[in-house]
Amino acid sequence: MKSFFSKFKEGLKKSTPTFYKAFGKVGGLFSGKTIDADTLDELEEALYMADFGVETTEEILGAIREAYRENKELRGQEAAQIGTHVLESVLEGSEGRIEPGAHKPEVIALIGVNGSGKTTTTAKLAHLFKEDGLKPLVGACDTFRAAANEQVRTWCERLDVELVASQHGADSAAVAYDAYAAAKSRGADVLILDTAGRLHNKANLMKELQKIRRVLQKHDEAAPHHSWLVIDGSIGSNSIEQARVFHEAFGLTGIIVTKLDGTSRGGALVGIYRELKLPIYFVGLGEQPEDFQPFSIHHYTHALFGVED
Ligand SMILES: Nc1nc2c(ncn2[C@@H]2O[C@H](COP(=O)(O)OP(=O)(O)OP(=O)(O)O)[C@@H](O)[C@H]2O)c(=O)[nH]1
User: Fold this and answer.
1) How far is CA 113 from CA 229, 235, 243, in A?
2) Whether residue 222 has pLDDT greater than 80
3) What pairs with residue 107 in β-bridges?
4) Does 267 belong to an annotated binding site?
5) Which of 54, 249, 254, 304 stands the most exposed, by the fewest C-beta atoms within 10 Å?
6) How far apart are CA 251 and CA 227, in angstroms?
7) Sorting pLDDT into bands at 50, 70 and 90, what band is 76?
8) ipTM metric
9) Distance in angstroms (rounded) separating the CA atoms of residues 71 and 79
10) Residue 196, annotated ligand binder?
11) Would you say 113 is a known binding-site residue?
C-alpha cells in the first residue's frame, strides 16, 4: 500500500499563510527584535482571544515570562521558540494518522452537528484517498435533512466517487449496511459515511449513530474503524463541550477541525485535545476538496508563533 501522506508534504507548506490568518496577531508580536512587558500583555490577550484557554495560555506565558525575567534582551524569535516548544509538548501525541490497508474497506464514520462541515469533509477525504490511488466509496447516511443527499451526490459526481444513498427519510443504518456491502463487493479501500447532524432530538441522534455502528458490525466487528467528530473550528471553546458530549455518547476515535481558514479562534483544538486526548486527524482550510491537510503539530505551532522553518 502506498504511503498515505506522500502527497501532503508539499501541501503543508502551501497553506501556511492560511494558518497565519487563522491565528490573527500572535505571530506578529514576535517580529520585533526584542520583547518587552507590553508584548507579554498583548500575547496574553491574543492567546485568550484565539481560545487557547487558561491552562495553555498560562503555560506559554509562564515560560516566556521566566525567560524574559532572566534576560531583558530576549529576542522576539527566541520568545516565539519558547512558546512553540511549550505548545508542542502540550500537543504531544495529538497527530492522528491512518494507514489504510488494515481493513478492506476501512470504515470511517463522520459525526458532528449540522453545518460543522461533515459533507464537505466527506468530499475532501474521498478526494484525498483518490489522489493517493485508493478507491473510496461514500455512504450518504444523513437521510434526515432533505438537501443533504443532494449535496453529497453533487460532490461525488464532481469527484467521480461512487456513492450509496437512499431516499430522504430512509433508515440511515440500512444505508450504512448497504454501503458497506457495496464497498466490499466493488473492492473499495475506504468507506466514508456522512451521518446526520440533527434529528428530532439529541437522544434520537445518538440512538441512530449507535444503530449505524451495530449494523456495520454485522459485516465487520471492528467497524467503524474510525469515528471522527467533525467540528467547526470557528466556534472556539464551545467546541470542547460539543466534543465531550459526542465522545461520551459514541466513543470517538478522533477529530477533524474545519474552517480554520476563516477564524481567529483556532486555539480551541488544543483545549479539545487537552481534555479528551483524542487525536486530531485533519484540518479543513477552505471549502474546496484540496483545502484539507493532516494535522501537523509542527505546522500548527510554528504558524502560530510565526517561527520560520
Ligand atoms: N471556510 C471553510 N468553510 C468550510 C470548511 N468546511 C466546510 N465549510 C463550509 O461550511 C458549510 C457547512 O458545511 P457542510 O459540509 O454542509 O456541513 P455539514 O456538517 O455536512 O452540515 P449538514 O449537511 O447541514 O449536516 C458549507 O458552506 C461549507 O462549504 C472549511 O474548512 N473552511
Assistant:
1) 9, 12, 10
2) yes
3) 191
4) no
5) 54
6) 8
7) confident
8) 0.94
9) 11
10) yes
11) yes
Between the CA of 151 and the centroid of ligand 1 the distance, in Å, is: 11
| pLDDT at site 169 | 74
Cβ(285) – ligand 1 distance below 6 Å: yes
Q: CA 241, CA 142: separation in Å to the nearest integer?
A: 23
pTM for the structure as a whole: 0.89
pLDDT of residue 261: 79
Q: At residue 92, what is the residue type? A: E
For residue 227 the three cell numbers come to 469515528
Cell of 58: 498560562
Q: Is the pLDDT of residue 158 over 70?
A: yes
pLDDT at 119 over 80: yes
What's the CA gap between 282 and 222, in Å, rounded? 22
Q: Which of 119, 121, 255, 280 to mutate to test the pocket of ligand 1 (most atoms within 8 A of CB)?
A: 119
How crowded is residue 162: how many other Cβ atoms within 10 Å of its Cβ? 17
Query: How many whole angstroms separate alpha carbon 225 and alpha carbon 218?
Result: 14
Between 109 and 285, the higher pLDDT residue: 109
Looking at ligand 1, which atom is closest to the CA of residue 196?
Answer: 25
246 by Cβ neighbours in 10 Å (0-12 / 13-18 / 19+) ranks as: buried
- In this structure, the strands spanning 226-232 and 254-258 are parallel
